[in-house]
Specification:
Layout: E1 6-11, H1 15-26, E2 32-38, E3 42-44, H2 49-53, H3 59-62, E4 63-65, H4 66-72, E5 75-79, E6 81-86, E7 91-95, E8 103-106, E9 109-112, H5 120-126, H6 130-133, E10 135-136, H7 140-154, E11 160-164, H8 168-184, E12 190-194, H9 206-218, E13 222-224, E14 228-232, E15 235-238, E16 243-244, E17 248-251, E18 274-276, E19 288-290, E20 295-297, H10 306-311, H11 313-325, E21 340-343, E22 349-353, E23 356-360, H12 361-379
Parallel strand pairs: 1-2, 1-9, 2-5, 9-19, 10-17, 11-12, 11-17, 12-13, 18-20
Antiparallel strand pairs: 3-4, 6-7, 7-8, 14-15, 15-16, 21-22, 22-23
Helix pairs in contact: 1-4, 1-11
Bound molecules: flavin-adenine dinucleotide.
Length: 400
């Protein structure tokens, strides 16, 4: 795309970028200079976080250390967060962890895989009090850091735990929290899933929803089919006027597009996500690509979930190198059906694929094997040891 050195800037170490780094470890053109801007030295694998909450996995087991991948991929790491993109001047603005100064990073080719966020202003408008009074599941690293404090508290006194949001992440988290606090806390803690109105798992087919409900009943988890209107010191306020007294409200509601995309000059969808074409390339800027929860396909909108971010990884890696080398880009077709493995605490899970569904301990063991194989794959990358391409587990897992 240009003579001399091309600067590829990767924003975020999300699912697809981990695969781009692995690909760069195998093949790194000499005239390519790669930088990763991401706040953490590791990437937390969200699919295993419910297992961490349940006490089955340690923090190390659910995090991919980035240093070996970066070294193998000859990629520089800048520890910080993107706070703006100036696409006209091909620059990204960023801040370090404890630094108010805004720095600029120039790029020739930009790839964005920063995930979705909980936007403070929108959260304040949609659910007043949530920011001050809840423990959100996102950002996931912060949640992973704070969860042990909940366990410690449950060892001192019984807790009332409410998970607000009954999508897949909320469902898995309430099962996991119940399992952990019943095993490691003093007796008497209670667990509630606040659905916002519909049945738990509204995105699932009726057969799977029925399985989820049976399992929730079996585990003694209360379900409140109510919208949560605000949260304060007294508890979680519901649309029917009731107040759920609650020690630990966990927030598992839907996410937003990052506000720093506004004013970037990039084409965005109505909700503010980067609009991309079938090559995962910005519809407005040919030198910008985006994947995962931060993006929306203009031709093929699909749910925001790890599985789609993962599937986009190999085509993204191909297209970044193709753009660099002036080769044709390859279209990426997101899958119609994906295998979805929903854990209900460790030891039991529900599988679904299109109209088919099943459940049992074997589903959990299957999920566990897939997840561990993935971690072994990306945690095992060292310089000159990138190994053959192996599919990501969430390739084989779920759509959320
Ligand atoms: C508890 C839980 C369990 C889940 N389980 C599953 C599951 O089993 N299967 C599934 O398909 N989905 C699951 N999901 C959803 C899944 O986590 C997301 O859809 C998926 O992580 C999106 O991937 P991504 O690559 O877009 O971004 P992410 O995985 O969110 O990665 C984003 C990266 O960008 C970095 N970053 C963020 N902001 C910035 C910034 N401003 N500048 C630079 N870097 C930044 C982050 O630190 C991170 O490295 C789960 C979600 C939760 C909360």
């Amino acid at each position: 795309m240009r003579s001399g050195i091309t600067r590829l800037l990767l924003l975020g170490a999300g699912h697809a970028h981990v695969q781009v780094l692995a690909e760069l470890a195998r093949h790194h053109p000499a005239d390519l200079q790669v930088t990763l801007l991401s706040p953490h030295p590791s990437q937390t694998y969200s699919g295993m976080v419910p297992g961490l909450v349940a006490g089955r996995y340690s923090v190390d087991e659910v995090q991919i250390p980035l240093a070996p991948l970066l070294q193998a991929a000859h990629t520089r790491w800048v520890a910080g967060r993107c706070v703006g993109i100036d696409s006209a001047n091909t620059q990204v603005h960023w801040q370090g962890p404890d630094d108010d100064t805004v720095h600029a990073l120039p790029y020739d080719l930009l790839s964005i895989d920063t995930g979705a966020v909980l936007d403070r202003e929108r959260l304040d408008a949609e659910l007043p009090g949530a920011r001050e009074h809840t423990l959100p599941l996102r950002p996931i690293d912060a949640f992973v850091g704070l969860w042990p404090e909940v366990v410690e508290l449950a060892q001192q006194r019984p807790l009332s735990v409410a998970v607000i949001g009954a999508g897949a992440a909320g469902i898995e988290t309430v099962f996991a929290a119940a399992q952990r606090l019943r095993a490691d806390g003093v007796p008497g803690s209670t667990f509630t899933l606040v659905t916002g109105g519909p049945e738990p798992g509204p995105g699932y087919i009726p057969g799977v929803r029925a399985r989820i409900q049976r399992r929730l009943r079996r585990e003694g988890i209360h379900v409140l089919r109510e919208a949560c209107t605000r949260i304060d010191d007294t508890g979680v306020h519901l649309a029917n006027g009731a107040v759920l007294r609650c020690d630990v409200p966990l927030l598992a509601i839907g996410t937003h597009a990052p506000t720093w995309l506004r004013g970037s000059g990039l084409a965005l969808d109505d909700a503010g996500h980067v609009l991309v074409n079938r090559f995962q390339q910005s519809t407005s800027h040919a030198n910008v690509f985006a994947v995962g929860d931060v993006s929306t396909r203009d031709d093929h909108p699909h749910p925001r979930s790890g599985v789609y971010a993962v599937r986009a990884g190999p085509p993204l890696a191909h297209n970044l190198l193709a753009a660099l080398e002036g080769r044709p880009l390859k279209p990426h077709w997101p899958p119609g059906y994906t295998l979805n493995l929903l854990s209900c605490g460790t030891g039991f899970a529900i599988a679904s694929w299109g109209p088919l569904h099943a459940q049992g301990a074997w589903v959990w063991r299957w999920k566990d094997r897939i997840d561990r194989a993935f971690m072994a794959r990306y945690c095992g990358v060292h310089a000159n040891n990138a190994g053959p391409r192996v599919p990501h587990p969430e390739d084989e897992r779920r759509a959320r």
